[in-house]
Amino acid sequence: MWQILLRRHPVRIEDPAGSCGRIDRKMLAEFFEAMVGYPDYLVDALLIIAHAEGFEAAVDALDEAIRELRARRQ
């Protein structure tokens, strides 16, 4: 699934340590709480998308990836 995410959202972050990008700090805890139990590599991919495009884009990207994965399996 993370490969679908990264293929559809090829984002690059020059210096992630020095920037919060488009991440709304107020929603960060809620975002991570929703990701509990997800594999680290999937959380990392979603965090990169959230950094570049915002939380809503990351959630939409996950939804799209799940739909694509289900369609492939049918």
Average pLDDT metric: 80
Described by the principal axes of the CA atoms, the overall outline is globular
Extended strand count? 0
Query: How much helical structure, as a percent, in the residues?
Result: 55-70%
SSE pattern: HHHH
Count of spatially separate domains: 1
Major β-sheet profile: none
Query: Tally the helices: what do you get?
Result: 4
- Structural class, judged by helices and strands? mainly alpha
Q: What is the chains' assembly state?
A: single chain
End-to-end separation in angstroms reads 16 Å
Pick out the low-confidence regions.
none
The Cα radius of gyration reads: 12 Å
Strand fraction: under 5%
Would you write up a description of this structure?
- This protein has one domain (2-9, 22-73).
- Helix 1 crosses helix 4 (55-73) and helix 3 packs across helix 4 (55-73).
- It is globular, with a radius of gyration of 12 Å.
- Helices cover 68% and strands 0% of the residues.
- It has helices at 2-8, 25-34, 40-53, 55-73.
- The protein is mainly alpha-helical.
